[in-house]
Design a protein that fits this description.
372 residues; single chain; 6-stranded antiparallel β-sheet; 11-stranded mixed β-sheet
Length: 372
């Protein structure tokens, strides 16, 4: 209890720092120097001088709020989220490595799934396989004001998505209706797999359908999505971590993911179920520039898992074969996750894609300095 109160006090004091009013992700904060002038006195005769000139300041450099890529203009789009099945029968994935952020979590009972976030889903011809949404997915989608594509869901979960005001589309239902535009949101590839794991989202179709429903596809270019970037944010003072094991744990349920650092790629490759993950279409390894582990306050609501993200928590950040402990925060149900170092200083991550594991504090995280 004392630790919770202490963390709450620290979080409140640091709202103006890491977890609070941070500069907009697309418009980095700039400091405008204030001009000062000594007060005139009766004994002073003002002299005519040339007007003081301010030194020119560099304009803010716009960047993609989810992967740090430098842009020509501030990002003014919407984030897109897509549910990803992640059990052995649903593998290999298709195009999840093209997501800016891939989040993995237990969603109910022993079911492990992923949520893929895209700053632009357009042009991606297949994403999946896609399954039904869950409470945790709805929760995260709300934090990023994202447009969610999924393969349905229980009455409880769909009601939750509606109550949160989320723009969400059941592409499984849409593709079976008569409107050609609706059919363009997804497809089933029966040559890939039979049964429930062959549904794939079509990026352009989801965007077109959202627009046809009057959904606003633009956003506020000054909105802060929480992430800060650097060309190379490898935590050089961290411990060597060439292999990072995360065991997602809930009661008797345990599921291990191992992120293995590949020096030739300078990225971590996603390994699970004893296999290295490769894309089903391109055979490209599912490799990520950044690895983040979030220990969250996860609870059970009926059969589903959800999280009190507003409570924040601790975790780890890995990049370039190094790992450090971190803190993370979330300032409200409509605000994104913010990552800080152990002293609650804003922490940049390296430009590129990011894998995030969301798990209970009881979930073991083990790393070694050698690739296994």
């Amino acid at each position: 209890m004392k630790r919770i109160l202490a963390l709450t006090l620290i979080f409140a004091l640091l709202l103006a720092g890491c977890g609070g009013r941070t500069p907009a992700a697309n418009q980095p904060e700039t400091t405008v120097p204030q001009q000062t002038q000594a007060p005139a006195t009766e004994a002073t005769v003002p002299e005519t001088t040339e007007a003081a000139t301010e030194e020119p300041t560099e304009p803010p450099v716009p960047f993609n709020p989810l992967n740090g890529e430098i842009l020509d203009a501030p990002f003014d789009g919407r984030i897109y989220a897509s549910t990803i099945s992640n059990i052995p029968d649903a593998l290999p994935h298709v195009n999840v490595v093209k997501a800016d952020i891939l989040m993995e979590m237990l969603v109910n009972n022993s079911i492990d799934r992923c949520l893929a976030l895209f700053s632009d889903i357009g042009g991606i011809e297949a994403i999946g396989s896609t399954r039904s949404t869950r409470l945790m997915f709805n929760n995260i989608t709300q934090h990023y004001n994202a447009i969610l594509s999924h393969g349905g869901g229980s009455e409880m979960v769909i009601s939750d998505a509606n109550a949160r005001g989320i723009a969400h589309y059941n592409v499984d239902s849409l593709m079976r209706q008569g409107d050609p535009l609706m059919k363009g949101t997804a497809y089933r590839d029966k040559e890939y797999k039979h049964g429930e794991h062959n549904l794939f989202v079509i990026g352009d179709g989801v965007k077109a359908y959202a627009e046809s429903k009057g959904q606003q596809l633009t956003g506020n270019p000054e909105h802060d999505y929480g992430l800060r970037f650097a060309d190379d944010a490898t935590p050089t003072a961290g411990e060597d971590a060439k292999s990072i094991s995360v065991t997602f744990t809930w009661d008797e349920t345990k599921k291990e993911t191992v992120m293995k650092y590949d020096e030739s790629l300078n990225k971590y490759v996603f390994n699970q179920y004893g296999k290295e993950m490769h894309d089903q279409i391109t055979d490209e390894p599912e490799a990520f520039q950044n690895v983040v582990i979030m220990h969250a306050d996860i609870y059970k609501d009926w059969i589903y898992y959800n999280a009190n993200f507003e409570k924040g928590g601790t975790g780890y950040y890995a990049c370039g074969g190094k790992i450090i402990p971190i803190n993370w925060a979330c300032n409200g149900e409509n605000e994104p996750f913010v990552f800080c170092d152990e002293n609650w200083n804003p922490m940049p991550i390296t430009r590129g894609n990011t894998y995030i594991a969301i798990c209970t504090p009881e979930s073991p995280v083990v790393w070694t300095g050698e690739a296994e």
